[in-house]
Amino acid sequence: MQLITEALQQSIFKADPQLAKEYATLISWLIPLSAVYIILTLATSFKKILGYAIAAGWIFIILMLILAKVG
């Protein structure tokens, strides 16, 4: 949190450094929450892609069984 506070004091809150401490606390809470959200979003996307791959695999196997029976 100290790193965030210093960065805010040197950039955005030069006029009022006390505000930097307040916002640094909020930012330090939002960063991990954002990371968790991104990970969950990626996991959901991966789950969807994996579902399509499994469905395509089953369709391929069923098609091969049908073609083997016909041919």
How would you describe what is shown here?
- The chain has 71 residues and is mainly alpha-helical.
- 89% of the residues lie in helices and 0% in strands.
- It has 2 helices and no strands.
- It has helices at residues 2-10, 17-70.
- Helix 1 packs across helix 2 (17-70).
- The longest helix has 54 residues, at 17-70.
- The radius of gyration is 26 Å and the shape is rod-shaped.
- The model has no long low-confidence stretch (mean pLDDT 87).
- Provide the residue-averaged pLDDT: 87
H/E topology pattern: HH
Strand tally is 0
For the biggest sheet, the summary is:
none
Shape: rod-shaped
First CA to last CA: what distance?
69 Å
Relative helix content: over 70%
The radius of gyration computed from the alpha-carbon positions, rounded to a whole number of angstroms, is 26 Å
Q: Helix tally? A: 2
Short note summarizing the structure:
This protein is 89% helix and 0% strand. It is mostly helical and 71 residues long. The longest helix has 54 residues, at 17-70.
Fill in the keyword field for this structure.
89% helix; 71 residues; 0% strand; rod-shaped; mainly alpha
Topology:
Elements: H1 2-10, H2 17-70
Helix pairs in contact: 1-2
